[in-house]
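Study both lines:
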Amino acid sequence: MTMGHEFSGTVTALGEGVTDLVVGENVVVEPYIIGPDVAVGPGNEYQLSADMNFIGLAGRGGGLSEKIVVERRWVHPIGDIPLDVAALIEPLAVGHHAFVRSGAVSGQVALIGGAGPIGLLLAAVLKAEGLTVIISELSQARKEKARSTGVADHVLDPSEVDVAATVRELTGGVGADVGFECSSVNAVLDTLLDAVRPAGVVVNVSIWGHPATVDMQKLVLKEIDLRGTIAYANDHPATIALVQQGKVDLAPFITAKIALDDLVAQGIDVLTHHNETQVKILVHP
């Protein structure tokens, strides 16, 4: 298996019947592996189809290969967006889909638990959509990235402050309108349930590798709406537009660029053992 599901590239050849792309055009790919009988396009929740999987995680090539063949339906032209920046459109689309799932609107207050790559890119989407963004994060490097990129209005360290109490102070005692769990840490989920207002929304964005526990009493007594989100569906056009219009600047989230030969030592090992020091490491195959 060739790894890599977050990638951009240049069209080098076109299959029979493909007439709306040109060789030399820069594109990004929704890296889905989905059955050909599954309908895509507006109104179709194809991300929920049976046996859904991803290029680079389940075969069919991957972004770390020199070339890859993909279905036309998953290809999105990016115009003049640079290829390095465009490699981050896939995780940005994850954030966009989480925003859509939340039902949040401009003028509301959002609390993000966890400022890893997805949490930071989600914050960028929320800021672009007119929300006030509060981030809770322990890592010094990630807190600094949230501040330096301007994607957060307030950055809180849960080892230093009571996050839920501080959020209520920042919102006149009401609480956040929406919370996003981006850490797969139970304490973060508990904090979000405390920090959102009554009838607020909590969206679980992270993929958990272990069972979570939910304080159902908090959920019931505050009538909190707990929602899941996975990947994206029809989010790429809107996500690409945010970048093209300058509403989201992805460049600051690229924290290293390495050659394929350095993938293990400067890429995988770093992200496995020192992931708090990097946001996105780009690999050129």
Remarks:
- The mean pLDDT is 96.
